Amino acid sequence: MADSVQHWRVSYNDIHNLIRKSTPTIAAQFNPDLLIAIGGGGFFPARVMRTFLREQTTKKALQIQAIGLSLYEPVEGTSEETLGSEVIRTQWLGPESGKLLLGKRNLIVDEVDDTRKTLHYALSELKKDVEAELLSYPEAERDALRSATQFAVFVVHNKLKPKLAELPSGILYFAGEEVGDLWLDYPWEATDIEAHDLLASQDRK
Ligand code: 5GP
């Protein structure tokens, strides 16, 4: 079957440089205490972002926590993927999730915001964990703790297209680069990295 979707290859260096350029704004406007990588595409970006945040803030190396979410099902025989109807949790923060997030500025990191369903799910569920944790505090303390607990999002690429879900209100949103509705081929998906990088440099031209 012919692959009808337009592909855009990105190299490790492209991603590294987009994160380098984005970090000063994130450090100034949000200054995260904790990074939450959405696996698998958010792992490499979160690790690189930690390097630049360390350089630009007075903080020690930030902790990176991981959650695993899956939306796309591979289509047999093609490199394209089709939209699944559900976000599936494959990994979460554990029973202490709310405790971990409470009182912190939590930055969710993923490689790409396509339909926004994954980010919507991640944020809604993490906020639920915070609300559950708040129940163990006296009512008088809850509002202050709730407002001290903040969430923001960083994605390397945001696709400019109609989104199928919205982020909860009050969420700061940072994107390394805005792109059209293309299929992005990431370097960690490539088996031949030299061939991938060659195509990525052609795509850039
Ligand atoms: P969303 O929930 O925003 O539709 O999709 C988010 C997830 O879908 C991403 O974390 C990623 O795993 C996958 N995805 C969406 N668009 C692309 C793309 O262009 N390239 C790749 N490699 N994965 C994508």
Automatic annotation (TrEMBL):
<dbReference type="GO" id="GO:0004422">
    <property type="term" value="F:hypoxanthine phosphoribosyltransferase activity"/>
</dbReference>
<dbReference type="InterPro" id="IPR000836">
    <property type="entry name" value="PRTase_dom"/>
</dbReference>
<keyword id="KW-0808">Transferase</keyword>
<dbReference type="GO" id="GO:0005737">
    <property type="term" value="C:cytoplasm"/>
</dbReference>
<dbReference type="GO" id="GO:0032264">
    <property type="term" value="P:IMP salvage"/>
</dbReference>
<protein>
    <recommendedName>
        <fullName>PRTase-like protein</fullName>
    </recommendedName>
</protein>
<dbReference type="InterPro" id="IPR029057">
    <property type="entry name" value="PRTase-like"/>
</dbReference>
<dbReference type="GO" id="GO:0032265">
    <property type="term" value="P:XMP salvage"/>
</dbReference>
<dbReference type="GO" id="GO:0032263">
    <property type="term" value="P:GMP salvage"/>
</dbReference>
<keyword id="KW-0328">Glycosyltransferase</keyword>
<dbReference type="GO" id="GO:0046100">
    <property type="term" value="P:hypoxanthine metabolic process"/>
</dbReference>
